[in-house]
Amino acid sequence: ETGVTQSPTHLIKTRGQQVTLRCSSQSGHNTVSWYQQALGQGPQFIFQYYREEENGRGNFPPRFSGLQFPNYSSELNVNALELDDSALYLCASSFLDRSYNEQFFGPGTRLTVL
Amino acid sequence: AQSVSQHNHHVILSEAASLELGCNYSYGGTVNLFWYVQYPGQHLQLLLKYFSGDPLVKGIKGFEAEFIKSKFSFNLRKPSVQWSDTAEYFCAVNAPGDKIIFGKGTRLHILP
After folding, report:
1. Per-residue pLDDT at A28
2. B103 CA: distance to closest CA in chain A (Å)
3. Distance between alpha carbon B111 and the CA centroid of its chain, in Å?
4. Which residues, in sequence order, are CB contacts of B70 under 8 Å at separation 6+?
5. Distance between CA atoms of B112 and B70, rounded to whole angstroms?
6. How many CB atoms lie within 10 A of CB B70?
7. Does the beta-carbon distance from B99 to A97 stay under 8 Å?
């Protein structure tokens, strides 16, 4: 059983640029959630994708968008990057069930915006 | 709205000391509760979880947590810490099927 993988591991961008982060979910999982972890903070929920559709969104602006593909992998896209977008971006996969929602996290992508 | 509060931002203990990290949440309905750990340079790992049943939950590496519904608390405990427990610990909560809300984390530093 393969775990959650993310790419790239590190990324440096400048303000105004766009970025795409990728996540491969754990085998057998059908749901992917994305989190932003700023320095010294806990992960903040960005959004969740289930069966290729957005299934819940946190308090993030529309320039944060995502996709989920038929193989349950996912992308997080951020447009018009701002300095405050510098953070560790975590992807977590799970099998969506009404009573059980254990999420398995990937190693994250560290994004630095200059 | 759900929220999670972790009382201690930074805890320093000597090896063999006992540990208790506080966690309180606000949510009126049924909740799932989690403690995650992030060792230096590693990704978030689940330490233990509570979904239902016995409120005293045992996790990996000798950790346990007690769900006290009347106090909206889910404190993490370990009777005797080791240097290898140095890490950041996150309490988290979700309503079944809903997004997970994390606390801000507690940095634990164990002195050898």
Report:
1. 82
2. 6
3. 20
4. none
5. 37
6. 5
7. no
Q: Classify each residue of A30-57 as buried b or exposed e, where b means 16 or more C-beta atoms within 10 Å of its C-beta.
A: bbbbbbbbeeeebbbbbbbbbeeeebee
For B52-99, the pLDDT digits (tens) are 899 999 999 999 999 999 999 999 999 999 999 999 999 999 876 678
Say whether pLDDT at A1 is over 60.
no
Whether residue B103 contacts residue B90, with contact meaning beta carbons closer than 8 Å, is answered with yes
Instruction: Decide if B105 touches A, using CB distance below 8 A.
Output: yes
Q: How far is CA A70 from the centre of its chain?
A: 17
- Residues B71, A53: Cα–Cα separation, whole Å: 37
Q: What is the pLDDT of residue A2?
A: 63
Rounded Cα–Cα distance for residues A24 and B43 (Å): 15
| Of residues B3, B68, B6, the one with CA closest to residue B35 | B6
State phi, psi for B84 to the nearest 5 degrees. Answer: -70, -5
List of chain B residues whose C-beta atoms are within 8 Å of the C-beta of residue A33: 99-100
